Amino acid sequence: MLTSGVRNFSVRYLVLIYLGWWLIWMILQTLVLYNAELLPLDVAIKDAAITSVILALAGYIMIMSMRYYRPRQLSQLTWSIALAIGCVFLIRWTAILLLGEESDYAIFFEKSMVLRGLFSWLMISIVTVITWVYFYLQEQQEIENRKVNTEKLAREAELSSLRQQLQPHFLFNSLNSISALVGTKPEEARKMIQQLSDFLRGTIKKDDQQLVSLEEELKHLHLYLEIEKVRFGHRLRTEIEQQDETKKMVLPSLLLQPLVENAIKFGLYDTIGEITIRLQATVLDNYLHVRVQNPFDPETAQPKPGTGFGLNSIQRRLYLLYGRNDLISTHQNVNIFTTELKIPQPA
Question: Which CATH number does the domain housing residue 291 bear?
């Protein structure tokens, strides 16, 4: 509705400009004919009015024809010359009919035929060039808009695909754990089923959200960690620290889960003891900084910066959303592996 309204306003604006253009030329032609003492004022007004109206109609015909078909330059030249010649004879017929064939005006008109033809061709050519440029720019804008919309849809499809690819292996692991608990610890199995249900429900709700607050993201992460703690029991501990001002800061939805999942994978899978996953959220220079740390055994696990589907998917999502590849980094110090995110905040 809004686009249609803007387009209608633009068309009305262009029509007013077009009519104003010919009104100005009618006034100028009247002044030239009268001040040069070529015609009386009333005759000069009629001559200028007839000329302007017919040329305006010819220009309109040119505009309408080029709206649906833009011929080559040679065809445009031929068409404009033919239209100008036709306009001169139509102006002559109309003017002589209104002002008299035997008058001095008829003699004046015959003497000015060539000049009128050149003037008509010049005016029609100007309208043709302006029309061609206008429709060309409009067409290029439409092509650019389609390109932008296509890229946007492709980006959204890829983002959606990346989010959905994060769930299956986690879901399979959870279901396997539930299966193992059903026989030995049915209460914990029921608890885990409920937690998994809440987690998946929250994931579905977030599918259409591009950005969420850190507070909301941490609530969702808490559900994920509760499920993992049922799987790993006392071996998995977590510490989450955040500055108060980070709670309302935003980040891409479902971004922290693969980050923490990566930390659990490298910190817990190759060990038999307890580990602690630490998450810290701070603010620096209008960026939300998130740091996730996990211990690892250098002899059994060799995490490399930027490897693994989880971290690669995060880097790809951040690039698609922000156009930058420097928003995620990893490093290791002795037996601590650290992943850091920095999320730009809206101005």
Answer: 3.30.565.10
